[in-house]
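Entry 12.
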Amino acid sequence: MADAVDLRGTTRVAAVIGSPISHSRSPSIVNAAFAAAGLDWAFVAFDVGAGRAEAAVAAMRSLGLGGLSVTMPHKEAVLPALDRVSDAAVALRAVNCIAWEGDELVGHNTDGDGLLRSLRLDAGVEVDGRRCAVLGAGGAARSVVRALAIGGAERVAVVNRTEARAREAAALGGAVAEVAEVAVVAEADLVVNATSVGMGERGPDAPSPVPEGLLHDGQVVVDLVYTPLETALLRQAERAGARGIDGLGMLVHQAALAVERWTGVAPDVAAMRDAAR
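Predicted 3D structure (tokens):
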């Protein structure tokens, strides 16, 4: 039986909107942060169908919600309903966090900074001067490409099946980013899988986005997939002597950044990670 939650008339409510949303780990992660900090806040999930993003933001205003996390399919659709949008969210055309600043609702994108914080604080890995390979060109990949470039990466190679989408993602990395074939993984110091390959797949036959023979010792390999935590790519990295990092770090740290924006309190990331696991 779940522990009872002490809700009061003073409790501030924040939420995640998306569809589908029943699988989300965000309520467990964020409520752990609120509890560890002793905050009179609660976090819930709302299944908001496509086309209802602006109505959800209007509801945030009318209900006085303390914050919103935003996931698919609403990350771009909420943009017209906001008063202001951060530089990262403008560049990525995607919002994953809405916070009050005075009486204005401001959209942010915390994914890229979440990855950098995870690498630095959890793994002691800095991206400055590293040669990086990013697999994928979707929303997560775009945020990673931009963050790595801003973080000082020497090179960011974008690998994707569709070249046009790869070019769009690489454009977010400026002069240090380029489109490349998957063989570039062998030259990279840091490899980030931002595709869904391997998601939900377990066992020896689970797919990996990287062909055998490209990974080697001395590399850092991050798989943003976190279901399962031990993916085929991470097992492949271990066999090759590379250092593997699972996707929970980015998930937790992007949520921690949102909590800090909503409450002004730096949350207990260890408590959030425990809840995520």
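Annotation: The radius of gyration is 19 Å. The chain has two domains: 12-109+250-276, 112-246.
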